[in-house]
Amino acid sequence: MTLLKEKKLSETPFRKEVLELFRSYSNAIPMAVIEKGLKTYNRITLYRTIKIFLEKGVIHEIAMSGEPSNYALCKESCSSVLHHHQHVHFKCRLCETVSCVEIKEFPTVSLPNHQIEQLEIQVSGVCSGCLEKDV
Q: Which helix (H) or strand (E) covers residue 113, if one does?
């Protein structure tokens, strides 16, 4: 079964094209990269597609402070109700790439009289690719 069918989405040619674009990147991508990577598109259809992909747990949004949003594919465990991510969002200050980096143990936070449903950690610095270039 395809990812779109698993998420109960119609498999339109445009949705397939957008999904394949996401699959071609190992890191998160901004809307400008998505727009540039598509052959032809209607802006309204693209924004609706991104919105439904977010709602259905196909992709997740990464909003780094003061930056345009980036988008990345979710793992299979995400749903329309809740995104399950055990990673940090990392932005390289040199190449400006935003990526989802898996960590061994995700920190736990406990707030009295609160129910935490999602925890997001944002980190910035120099990515491994840029560090290797300096060696």
A: none
